[in-house]
Specification:
heterodimer, A: 378 residues, alpha/beta, Rossmann fold, 2 domains, six-stranded parallel sheet, 11 helices, 15 strands, globular, B: 303 residues, ABC transporter involved in vitamin B12 uptake, BtuC, 13 helices, 2 strands
Chain lengths: 378, 303
């Protein structure tokens, strides 16, 4: 019912905005980019965060939520939050509502928000819109930025942990869609595992959903019955797969969030988002009126090498021996010094050469990987 | 256990989640009321079951709460449709939206909590039968109860007086009225009972199968249940076959991929819908079961 009301108030608002836009379009407006000190979001005191799932999903959305709490207390800004916002026109409604409530900076944190976020940025030049996980391919408007972390490096470290405990040499990976982000993760996981266990094979199951517990459970069951004794995933909500692993007494490597408490004996490690430093850096840049033209007014990717990767290695579980920990931490140090898990020679599982010997894949190339590497089944 | 057995075993467990609401829908539709809000009843059942299971530590108390949760949504539908003569389709959809919103809000604190699930019980003797045993007799109790429920509902509908009255209500409520029964009460009872069964389906999902609560976790399976009833031509055994087929095809998608058998992902996604549809259309043709007359009227009059 509330949604319906919102719908109407949104219509009214949109109509008035449209009228305003038409009225303004005839006026000669000075280019926003020309005066950096007059950025409309300078000294912003209200920031909005929009998430697609629940604040307590022990996954992607909880990571954003936790960081937004930290932003509020560290920067003394008012934080507006909207959770469970579907990837539809509704996200536009929510963004408009946040603007009405005084937000000057909005973080739209789900991949599927991208078209709405870009459109909103274009129609609201005085509002700073940041989209998490997308890539914007045209010339960036002054008030738009996308940002993400280099996920595959920490994921490869989780793969090493998996390779160290597997007895069957079979690892299981549950994912949603074979988008480059996911393909990179699966490949990095397998390559990491091979560093410890050269015979490790990663079996994959796609669910075509970011969070469908029924499909996740049957995917996990199928992988376990195939012989996988370590499970990992690229899903938004991770507890179904962890529960399934726990029931079958196999190990898990987490993603998005430290979920060790769900399965203390099976948890190896994982990758967890620590968004707060990046959010705070973006907000401070904006408050200082220096956003336009900055590195955030682009497709920003935090990496281990540049020391600003929002995705970090999660705490180790009891099953990881100290010898393995040392190896993993050494590998992490190497990545932070500029190394890469995608160092050739790397072959696709169809035999095609992916990265030539002695070469390191560039981030741009990695973001276009479409093949699973040798050792991945799927 | 090989992949084939695995798909069947997982399929029975997953199919049971659809079987309960489908049986519920069957009862309601036999009495002349469509409930498109089965998805909402399942969500209410799944959350009630999970919340009570998490608080009390007893999954069985959770299942009871799930029955209650589903029934409450069903009662709302019954009141709107039977007492207030609201449009059946609209009422069902509105209640689905309402349940989706309410369970998302009320359930926020339960997301990612865990619950002690319903235990898997291996039926002594039967589970030792090669092949059949692991597929049918190594599940939680709600699966076993559904084995009895299907013949029970078939018997009650076609061999008992109450079943006759219920079916008559779905065909010609006036006749029932003349015979001295109150068709309104029969319909309300059938809708609430059906919704309670959907609540069990939700409970099987949250505390029987995945041991989790997520908002919108039913992901459209309540609508599949409604579709299964239609294509099964309102016959309990066919409903059971349809629900299991859907579950098995869903499980097969995972098993095939885990096996490394390359099938297009989107073809696999379509598989459960395709298999269930084709099988039920083929099976449903024979036997000459037809839509309850009251239902046809309700559906053609609405809009």
């Amino acid at each position: 019912m509330k949604r319906k009301l919102n719908h109407w108030s949104r219509r009214l608002r949109l109509t008035s905005l449209a009228v305003l836009a038409v009225a303004l379009s005839g006026l000669p407006i000075a280019s926003v980019a020309s005066g950096a000190t007059t950025e409309p979001w300078a000294k912003a005191t209200t920031v909005g965060f929009i998430t697609v799932g629940a604040n307590t999903d022990e996954g992607y959305n909880e990571a954003v939520y936790s960081a937004s709490l930290k932003v509020a207390s560290d920067l003394h800004v008012k934080v507006l939050r909207a959770a469970n916002v579907p990837e539809t026109q509704q996200v536009t409604t929510v963004m408009q509502q946040m603007v009405d409530d005084g937000a000057k900076i909005i973080f739209a944190t789900s991949y599927g928000y991208q078209s709405y976020a870009y459109a909103f940025a274009k129609s609201h030049p005085k509002i700073l819109v940041l989209h998490q996980g997308g890539t914007y391919t045209s010339k960036f408007p002054a008030n738009l930025g996308t940002y993400f972390g280099e996920a595959y490096d920490p994921v490869s470290l989780g793969g090493m942990a998996a390779g160290s405990v597997t007895k069957t040499n079979k690892l299981g990976f549950v994912y949603a869609f074979p988008i480059p982000q996911t393909v990179d993760n699966v490949d990095a996981f397998e390559l990491g595992a091979q560093k410890i266990d050269p015979k490790a094979v990663t079996y994959t199951v796609a669910t075509s959903e970011w969070c469908d517990p029924l499909k996740q459970k049957s995917a996990a069951t199928a992988l376990i019955s195939e012989g996988a004794d370590v499970l990992t995933q690229h899903q938004d909500c991770q507890s179904t797969v962890i529960e399934a692993a726990k029931a079958a007494k196999v190990y898990v490597v987490g993603y998005h969030y430290d979920a060790q408490s769900l399965d203390p004996s099976g948890w190896l490690t994982g990758s967890e988002w620590n968004w707060a430093p990046l959010y705070e850096s973006i907000i401070k840049t904006a408050q200082a009126g220096k956003f336009t033209g900055s590195k955030y007014n682009a497709n920003f990717i935090g990496t281990f090498a540049s020391g600003d990767n929002p995705l970090q290695l999660a705490p180790f579980g009891h099953a990881v021996t100290s010898a393995v920990k040392t190896k993993i931490l050494a590998a992490e140090a190497k990545l932070k010094a500029g190394g890469s898990i995608f160092t050739g020679p790397i072959y696709c599982n169809n035999g095609k050469l992916l990265v030539p010997a002695g070469k390191v894949a560039t981030p741009a190339a990695i973001n276009q990987f479409t093949c699973f590497v040798k050792g991945v089944v799927g | 256990m090989n992949g084939f057995e695995q798909a069947l075993t997982t399929g029975i467990e997953g199919g049971t989640i659809i079987l309960y609401p489908a049986l519920g829908e069957l009862i309601g539709e036999r009495a002349g009321v469509v409930n498109l809000g089965m998805e909402g009843c399942m969500l209410a059942g799944a959350l009630s079951a999970f919340a009570v299971g998490a608080i009390t530590g007893s999954a069985w108390l959770g299942v009871l709460a799930g029955i209650g949760g589903g029934a409450v949504v069903g009662l709302a539908h019954a009141w709107l449709v039977v007492k207030r003569h609201a449009d059946q389709l609209a009422s069902g959809l509105v209640l689905w939206f309402l349940a989706l919103g309410l369970t998302s809000v009320l359930g926020a604190n339960y997301v990612s909590q865990t619950v002690t699930p319903l235990p898997v019980i291996n039926v002594t003797g039967l589970s030792a039968i090669p092949w059949i045993g692991p597929i049918f007799f190594e599940h939680d109790s709600l699966v076993y109860i559904s084995y009895f429920l299907v013949p029970l509902i078939g018997w009650a509908l076609y061999r008992t007086r109450i079943g006759l009255v219920l079916r008559a209500t779905g065909e010609r409520p006036e006749v029932v009225s003349v015979a001295g029964r109150r068709p309104e009460l029969v319909q309300m009872g059938a809708v609430v009972l059906g919704a309670a069964l959907a609540g069990i389906g939700g409970a099987q999902l949250s505390v029987g199968y995945v041991d989790n609560w997520f908002d919108d976790m039913t992901n459209g399976y309540g609508f599949i249940a409604v579709a299964v009833v239609l294509f099964a031509a309102w016959r309990p055994w066919l409903v059971m076959i349809g629900a299991y087929l859907f579950g098995v095809a869903l499980a097969a998608a995972g098993v095939l991929q885990a096996h490394g058998i390359e099938v297009n992902q989107y073809v696999l996604d379509a598989l459960p819908y395709f298999v269930t549809l084709v099988a039920l259309v083929a099976l449903g043709r024979s036997g000459g079961s037809r839509a309850p007359e009251g239902l046809t009227k309700a559906l053609t009059n609405s809009s």
